[in-house]
Specification:
Layout: H1 2-5, H2 20-42, H3 45-63, H4 65-71, H5 73-80, H6 84-109
Length: 110
Amino acid sequence: MDDIKNLKKPQSQEGSGGSGGAEEIDKEAEANKLAEAEYFNAYSSNVRYSLFAIIFVSNILINIDHGSLPGGAEGIKYKANMNNWSFGVLGSVVYLGLTLGSAVASASLS
């Protein structure tokens, strides 16, 4: 946030035919500064760190099966008495669930 407070207005270059571009950059920098200030005022650091931790852990839990199936392929196929086609279907179920969950979430949040 200190970086935003120290923003300098861009200098217009000579011969550029005016300062229209510099004014747009100033407006964009000011809008970014206000948005960031509003964000930091609205959410405490505890809320931001908690949200980060929840998203981080949920991504680990959601994606853990991407590595566990290939890693234990031979053991899973042997114990479950599966052929290669069935094992491929098992690996694809993750993406089917992701697709259906995304469709349901987008429909319910629209």
